[in-house]
Amino acid sequence: MSSDSSTWHKDLREVLSDLTPGVTVCLLILIFVFIVGALAPWIAPYDEGAILTNNSFESPSAAMWLGSDYLGRDILSRMIFGVRVTLFLALAITFLSFFAGVGLGFLAAAFGGKVDSYVSRLNDAMLSFPSLMLALIVINSLGSSFVVLVFTIAFIDMTRVFRVARALAVNIMVMDYVEAAIVRGEGKGWIIWQEVLPNALTPLAAEFGIRFTYAILFISALSFLGLGVQPPQSDLGVMVKENMQAILYGEYTTLYPAICIALIAISMNVFVDWLLQRSSAQLPDEI
Length: 287
Prior knowledge:
Elements: H1 3-18, H2 21-38, H3 40-43, H4 75-111, H5 113-127, H6 131-142, H7 146-173, H8 176-183, H9 188-224, H10 236-242, H11 255-279
Helix pairs in contact: 2-4, 2-11, 4-5, 4-7, 4-9, 5-7, 6-7, 7-9, 8-9, 9-10, 9-11, 10-11
């Protein structure tokens, strides 16, 4: 066995040994949810739009394990497809916001001076707008397509990522090893790629998990308000909105997607907390 392979196995054993029972459960929930989302077309019992009964909010049965929704569609199938849509949108939003926010944050910290001042003030101006209100205005004006949803929420989220990335980079830029690289004549791009990014990866990974959770909650909130994912497609927020009347009939149909949203959010937050504690990394106080 090579030394690299032995080191990798040792690191993996150390990580697994640090997992607490609570973190393990949360990690298994996240893995399960992602697998369900990826395999949705193959594991869902029925098509998400198939009407199986004329009865609204039918009780769970052997044919429909979680019962039916207000149109007689299988709740379990729609939840499986809803998880797929929610995760896809949340991942697209988070990756896009991180690509833009981290890039701008690192550049602002590396160049400093007027570049940092102008970009930071513009970012602060964008942060002054209430996120939900800004999203409602943009989406209501441009329409509620997947592209509009992703770019609108990613742009809003980018302002938060920028603050974290810039604060991390500013702290790293004053370190001795960065000063040594500057003295050697290394360029800004080399310093960002070789010095700033590797030393900021752990807190950025934690922030990625936080932003991912935020994206899921934001998408669900917009869908609940009718400006997110549009029927016949569904996400978890749409399902909560569509089936609110089930509570009046003593059925728990509307609680299933709400519980799913809560489980994903809580599991991701617990995992992020564990990641930060294990690495002894901290997000800068100024953010």
